[in-house]
Amino acid sequence: MSLAVQVFIFAVGVGLVTKGADWFVDSAVWLARVARIPRVLVGATIVSLATTLPETAVSLYASYSGRPDTAVGNAVGSVIFNTCVVLSTALLIRPVRIERRSLLPKAGFMVLAGAVAYLMMKGGSIGPASGVGLLGLLVLYIIYSIWSGRAEAEAAATTAVAVTEGTWRQLAGFAGGAAMVFVGGRALVTSGVAIARAVGVPEVAIALTLIAVGTSLPELATSVAALLKGFQDLSVGNVMGANFLNMTLVLGGAAVINPLPAARQILVVSLPVMLIVMSLTVVFGLTRPSFERGHGLLLVAVYVVYLALTFSGG
User: Fold this and answer.
1) Phi and psi of 20, rounded to 5°?
2) Burial 105-131 (b: 16+ CB within 10 A, else e)
3) Residue ranges of the alpha helices (H) in 94-166?
């Protein structure tokens, strides 16, 4: 395909992701109200799982195709982008007040998954057995989310709504929005990689930045849409949940298919940066009553340095 066609596909992908995220957020909040589920729990599980589908598809296919650098780079790069750009974008729009009881345990799971993945990579590679271990951590997280969701539901301020004739429309919006986000994300990755190659961007930079950014655009669109609608807790919960899923579902699933050795750049630069930005979110949550714009600016600065290291070869 010509470069002009790829640019058109990229633009279509942006539209699908943006509109799909808008539908998806509306329906997810409706689901939370019907089921008496706190919005932060919806953001950390259902919304995160749907918006992480592009990362999952790309890394599983990359692992199956024998491209471990792409599989690992996509997962790790997505976490860095989610934290430094997606979360920062939300914070620059509007500071987000922290509900520590809901957010900090999920932040702890996120950091734990990142640390476990890093130690596995430092040992040489993540093999199928280690991949199963990461997936097991995901199962524990789901069990915890169900348990904490029941406890929070009793004290949550969310009000249940009656199931009406609009139910099918909401469910269609939920499924249709998720599908649009997924298809749009795939279109962005495919066309974005083609555009990058046409202008001579190195393959390793594509794996860690462009592919990671492309597959993370659903998180960006969903989080911004949630924030603009006034659902700050859903926005932050989505980022933390997506990061955790990248380290467990995406990386673990890819490792089950084929062993994933870490390239030196990923091991020396990307994984440490990932752990640093994950830890910063926990520090922000422990030291302040809300995530502030200054926190977002700091994370953006870290991302700029990370990009410089990536394109310079670390």
Assistant:
1) -60, -40
2) bbbebbbbbbbbbbebbeeebbbeebb
3) 100-122, 128-155
Question: CA–CA separation, 295 vs 285, rounded Å?
Answer: 10
CA 66 to chain centre: 23
Mean pLDDT, the chain, rounded, equals 80
Distances (CA, A) of 82 to 76, 145, 192, 210, 309: 10, 21, 18, 13, 18
Residue 44 has pLDDT above 60, yes or no: no
Distance between terminal CA atoms of the chain? 33
Q: Say if CB 46 and CB 25 are below 8 A apart.
A: no
Q: Which residue has the tokens 């933390």?
A: 240
- Given the structure tokens 């650098």, which residue do they identify? 69
The Cα–Cα gap between 251 and 195 comes to 26
Residue with tokens 């649009």, as numbered in its chain: 180
Residue with tokens 């990058």, as numbered in its chain: 196
pTM here? 0.78
Q: 3-state DSSP call for residue 229?
A: coil
The letter for the amino acid at 295 is H
User: Is 3.30.420.10 the CATH classification of the domain at 3-311?
Assistant: no
Dmax over CA atoms of the chain, in Å, equals 57
Does residue 162 have a pLDDT over 70?
A: no
Type of residue numbered 111:
V
CA distance 189 to 75: 14
Q: Which pLDDT band holds residue 65 (cuts at 50, 70, 90)?
A: confident
Cβ-contact 243, 55 below 8 angstroms: no
pLDDT, tens digit, for every residue of 74-93? Answer: 899 999 999 999 888 888 88
